[in-house]
Specification:
Blueprint: E1 4-9, H1 12-28, E2 33-38, H2 40-46, E3 50-52, H3 54-57, H4 62-67, H5 69-86, E4 90-94, H6 97-110, E5 115-119, H7 124-127, H8 131-138, E6 141-144, H9 147-155, E7 160-162, H10 166-172, E8 184-188, H11 193-213, E9 218-223, H12 226-236, E10 245-249, H13 252-258, E11 261-264, H14 268-275, E12 280-284, H15 288-297, H16 305-310, E13 317-319, H17 325-337, H18 339-355, H19 361-373
Parallel strand pairs: 1-2, 1-4, 2-3, 4-5, 5-6, 6-7, 8-9, 8-11, 9-10, 11-12, 12-13
Length: 374
């Protein structure tokens, strides 16, 4: 009989990684049935058996989640009901830890024999390492993407396989070979509306300061979607700088290769920029309740993944009240004007990316899932 898998992914990056995993599973086991929740890319593969909910589910910040508690409570119960109806051979949870870890715990209580597999480890090592032992009680297998994670999880008794970072295979296909433009500044204000509203105005002020000192500078902004492109255009509407700004929709990778230097919001984009060897600074702002909660919980010294992986600050981080336009612009100008500073950062990036493994993470993860199901 064909195996049935139920997937849960809740954001654009999870949808991308989930789709790549589904394609790899199709290559190994063409008769597998796919069900669950994800985004448009996963739905293209699974069809109507998969709900596209990623736009509604992608919420960043503690306070933002609290405000939508009723919605998430209903979705949580609906997901449990769907899983009971589908009766899958395994549930595959992709990132999205706030929802998926609670779901895994609830499913284990209801179905002790259900296989629960987690792909792309939640970053509990950054927030609460004590949760790792708890996770070992309700997960059967962890497929992690950073090499240091496997040791942490295996020590807790949770069987873990390092498969490499799926970002590597995705980005390798997007290499253009295009030379960077010494006059081009790239802005990457995030993939969510709330991020853009908080972060983009600060980036714009810093960009204006840079333009005043380097009049030849022109600016491109990466918009993750058409709707975000409209929001970015609205934020630019009354600014003198708008004449120098071009909005690029759905091609952040291309912009990272064309730009000479960048300002990047926290998240996967920081690793993408490192992969494409783009010198950049990290700029991030959230609501104050979310910021204070994060400062209390965070166990790492850095926010950006290149810095976390290096265990030191390679990329300058400008967070919350420290995200001041003049300070940001000074640092960006140094990366534009000082060749040695640029080359040092790029060299550090190369060492970090090498740690993430070669291409083929999705295929390795698919093989591990097939083996787990016997």
């Amino acid at each position: 009989m064909a195996k049935r898998l139920y997937f849960v992914a809740g954001e654009a990056s999870g949808d991308e990684h989930g789709a790549a995993l589904m394609r790899a599973l199709r290559d190994l086991a063409p008769d597998f049935e796919f069900h669950g929740r994800g985004g448009p890319l996963m739905r293209q593969i699974a069809g109507e058996a998969l709900l596209n909910w990623s736009d509604a589910a992608a919420v960043v910040g503690l306070w933002e989640v609290v405000k939508r508690y009723g919605y998430f409570r209903k979705q949580f119960q609906d997901t449990i009901d769907e899983i009971e109806f589908v009766d899958p051979d395994a549930v595959v949870l992709i990132d999205y830890p706030g929802f998926n870890l609670r779901l895994a715990r609830a499913l284990r209580k209801r179905s002790p024999r259900l296989k629960i597999i987690y792909y792309i480890s939640p970053q509990v090592w950054a927030w609460n390492r004590g949760r790792i032992r708890q996770m070992a009680r309700f997960l059967d297998l962890m497929l992690c993407i950073f090499p240091f994670e496997a040791e942490l999880y295996n020590q807790s008794g949770l069987r873990t396989i390092f498969v490499g970072h799926p970002m590597i295979e995705n980005l390798a296909k997007r290499r253009t070979g295009e030379a960077s433009d010494p006059k081009l500044l790239g802005l990457f204000p995030g993939s969510r509306s709330r991020e853009v509203k908080k972060i983009f105005p600060v980036m714009l002020e810093a960009a204006a300061e840079i333009s005043s000192q380097r009049p030849e500078t022109h600016i491109e902004v990466a918009a993750a979607s058409a709707s975000l492109s409209v929001e970015i255009q609205n934020l630019l509407a009354d600014l003198p700088l708008r004449e120098r700004v071009r909005i690029v929709t759905g091609d952040a990778s291309g912009l990272m290769q064309r730009a000479f230097v960048g300002m990047v919001a926290s998240g996967t984009a920081t690793l993408e920029a490192a992969y494409f060897r783009l010198p950049f600074v990290l700029v991030y702002r959230v609501s104050w309740p979310t910021y204070f909660a994060a400062r209390l919980l965070m166990k790492t010294n850095h926010l950006g993944m290149p810095n976390v992986l290096a265990d030191r600050e390679i990329v300058p981080e400008f967070l919350q009240h420290e995200a001041r336009p003049k300070t940001i612009s000074r640092t960006v100008l140094r990366l534009m004007n000082d060749p040695s500073a640029r080359e040092q950062m790029i060299s550090e990036f190369d060492a970090i990316i090498e740690k993430l493994g070669e291409t083929g993470a999705s295929a390795k993860a698919a093989r591990a899932i097939v083996d787990e199901l016997g």
